[in-house]
Design a protein that fits this description.
Elements lengths: L6 H13 L14 H9 L3 H12 L4 H12 L9 H5 L9 H20 L1 H22 L16 H12 L48 H19 L8 H21 L8 H16 L9 E6 L10 E12 L8 E17 L4 E15 L2 E14 L9 E17 L1
Parallel strand pairs: 1-2, 2-3, 3-6, 4-6
Antiparallel strand pairs: 4-5
Helix pairs in contact: 2-3, 3-4, 4-6, 4-7, 6-7, 7-9, 9-10, 10-11
């Protein structure tokens, strides 16, 4: 396999992976045989694969999504097709149709978590895909499935035809060669003259010496995956490892690989297909005021029981913020803000509280204490005293979603 990553080599590797993808064995499995099948296909310890799945599952469930997809897309044993392909009528699978449908339904929420799971889950899925890609590039030649060719292909039919053509071999030559003037052996007239001068070999017939290709590209790509994995882990302990800085680290590693490859004869040039889009995304994230901190992505839920527990601000870049204030006492005052960049902002207030609310959404839908609207530029301000009239707990809310849904309701 070539160590130089390019668009053509990536496409070739992905096509080869799909054509020779692992099969889920009947023996040695723990659940569906996905890990055992990958280990058997690439001849590695299945414990390593299972540990990798567990590690990716800790990335907000990325490993669960990958395992479900493997269950659906990898055929079992000697089946003609995978469960998903069988459901589409492209072959037979021993997996029951009902189970296949249930697995497909399970993938739907798992895919939703891919969006709401934030940077950690997205990175975990990308890390898993990259690991499988490198695994196939490095060990794809091992334990490849045997091609079965029947009569009329390159198997029995060709061997029989070759035998018949050998037995019926004749020559079109009509003049005997000098070594057989009596014409006693016409079946050998095509042989060269004894002691004759061999025909000169043309330069085009000499096979060209293949230049050893650099492995800088593959090594750099692997190093980038290691940096991504380390950043995902470090993001839980340090605020520095947010998306912009991680993208910067990845671009730095890939750029260093390109420089090293150029010094070693041009290897790693295909990395430009990764450096350019990553650099573009990094510039966009650092140029616009859009915080994509991993801890501000996903679903945030809060249900304070005292006024002191209510924070001044609840926010998420991408995902959902759910704030339930129905557990607060019926006296005192509370002021808070809820803001979501892309997603849903929902606040539930007590039925008898005096609520002053300011609801806004630039694009999406809004239901603000019964006042509904949708489309672009929604804004509603109101003061509602609840079912008991003025008096009691006072709540001042500022709820906003740039793109998505805003909802303020009574509990």
């Amino acid at each position: 396999m070539s160590g130089n990553i390019s668009a053509a080599s990536v496409e070739e590797t992905l096509k080869d992976f799909w054509a020779t993808r692992p099969r889920r064995p009947h023996d040695g499995r723990k659940i569906a045989g996905v890990a055992a099948g990958i280990a058997k296909r690439y001849q590695i310890d299945p414990v390593i694969v299972r540990v990798a799945f567990v590690a990716m599952a800790l990335c907000n469930g990325a490993g669960v999504l990958i395992y479900l997809l493997g269950w659906l897309l990898l055929a079992q044993g000697d089946d003609e097709a995978s469960p998903a392909e069988a459901l589409l009528g492209r072959g037979h699978s021993s997996t029951p149709t009902a189970l296949t449908v249930l697995l497909g339904l399970a993938v739907v929420p798992a895919t939703g978590f891919f969006v709401d799971g934030g940077f950690t889950m997205v990175g975990g899925v990308l890390l898993s895909v990259g690991a499988v890609y490198l695994l196939h590039r490095g060990r794809g030649q091992l334990n490849r499935p045997e091609s079965k060719v029947g009569i009329g292909g390159l198997g029995i039919g060709d061997s029989v035809g070759e035998k018949v053509s050998t037995e019926e071999h004749t020559t079109d030559r009509v003049t005997p060669p000098a070594w057989d003037p009596l014409g006693a052996a016409p079946f050998a007239w095509d042989l060269p003259e004894p002691g004759g001068t061999p025909e000169p070999v043309s330069a085009s017939a000499v096979p060209a010496v293949r230049r050893r290709k650099s492995r800088v590209g593959a090594a750099t790509f692997g190093a980038a995956l290691v940096v991504l994995a380390g950043s995902l882990v470090a993001s839980s302990y340090s605020d520095w490892f947010h998306a912009q800085h991680v993208l910067g680290l990845l671009v730095a590693v890939l750029g260093a690989g390109m420089v090293l490859g150029s010094l070693r004869g041009g290897g790693g040039r295909g990395l430009i297909w990764l450096v350019v889009p990553l650099s573009f995304v990094g510039v966009v994230l650092t140029s616009v005021d859009f915080d994509v901190d991993a801890r501000q992505m996903g679903k945030i839920e809060a249900r304070p029981a005292t006024i002191a527990e209510v924070r001044e601000r609840y926010e998420a870049s991408v995902g959902e913020v759910g704030l339930d204030l129905t557990g607060l006492p019926n006296s005192g005052s509370v002021t808070t803000e809820v803001e979501v960049g892309l997603g849903r902002a929902a606040v539930k207030v007590p039925a008898d509280a005096d609520v002053t609310v300011n609801c806004r959404t630039d694009l999406g839908s809004m239901n603000c204490l019964g006042q509904e609207s949708g489309g672009e530029g929604n804004h509603h301000e109101d003061t509602d005293y609840g079912v008991d009239g003025p008096g009691g707990l006072k709540i001042v809310l500022d709820v906003r979603s740039d793109v998505g849904e805003v909802e303020v309701s009574r509990g």
